[in-house]
Amino acid sequence: MQLIKVENPEQGAERVFEIIREELENGRLNVLGLATGSTMIPVYKMWTDSDLDFSNVTSFNLDEYVGIAADSPNSYAYFMKDHLFNKKKFKETNIPDGMAADLDAECRAYEELLVKHPLDIQLLGVGENGHIAFNEPGTSFESVTHVAHLTESTLGVNSQYFENDEKIPETALTMGIMSIMRAKKLILLAFGEKKRDAIAKLLEGEVTLEWPITNLLKHEDFIVITDLEL
Ligand code: GLP
User: Fold this and answer.
1) Which of 41, 71, 76, 188 is the right S-S partner for 36, CB 3.0 to 4.6 Å?
2) How far is the CA of 105 from the centre of ligand 1 (A)?
3) How far is CA 67 from CA 93, 98, 103, 165, in A?
């Protein structure tokens, strides 16, 4: 693991920008794994304000709520359009379809696509309880794309962002831990005190099911960017 300490989220976004620009220029970035959440907003803002060219890049998002339509402001599909896709052209973008009639079939199809298009880089945030994408504590390290049941902690934190009286779903589709671990490079961003417990667990160095983030320690190219004094 490589730890990069920054002063604030904007500086963190700059570090991500440098990595992405270099990989794009070297032709090493063809498939990019994207994340949602407030952590990613300054990252995507820098990209959309820049001349970075993603027109040859295929993207895959980590996760999506079940039962929230893509045109609802609460969906991750909407978040991605709003913050990135409406302003930057990609070759192709992929997000699991939480409205699919057969969710298990949707998960299998998404995983198959991921296997066909190996991720060069996966961007990650982290939940306060250490969840990665929607892989909550206790999720198997062997997991692939699946229907996840959200914990009380995640429902509480994420419901704050829900608009228009829409209720937060208790389930979501998410890449599994193994789907994420297959990416060639992982870049995790964690800003602010609310992420201290998760980052502290990571630094303890022990891989445990109770803190999904710790599984990433097994990845050989894993970068953590944080503004936390540790
Ligand atoms: C959600 C997403 C995660 C994300 C987390 C953190 O739960 N499923 O992928 O890492 O939120 O969000 P934020 O960046 O807003 O702290």
Assistant:
1) 76
2) 25
3) 20, 6, 10, 14
Is residue 59 lining ligand 1, measured as CB closer than 6 Å? no
For the stretch 51-81, pLDDT in tens is: 999 999 999 999 999 999 999 999 999 999 9
Q: Specify the amino acid at residue 1.
A: M
Other CB atoms within 10 A of residue 174 CB:
30
Residues acting as catalytic residues: 63, 129, 131, 136
What band does 32 get if pLDDT is binned at 50, 70 and 90? Answer: very high
User: pTM of this prediction?
Assistant: 0.98
- DSSP class of residue 124 equals E
Query: What is the residue with the minimal CA distance to atom 5 of ligand 1?
Result: 127
Give the ligand 1 atom nearest the CA of 134.
8
106 lines ligand 1 (CB under 6 A): no
Amino acid found at 200: A
Indicate if ligand 1 lies below 6 Å from the C-beta of 127: yes
Which tens digit of pLDDT belongs to each residue from 158-198? 999 999 999 999 999 999 999 999 999 999 999 999 999 99
Query: Considering the domain 2-192+216-226 in this protein, what is its CATH number?
Result: 3.40.50.1360
178 close to 193: Cβ distance less than 8 angstroms = no
Distances (CA, A) of 52 to 44, 168, 208: 11, 34, 38
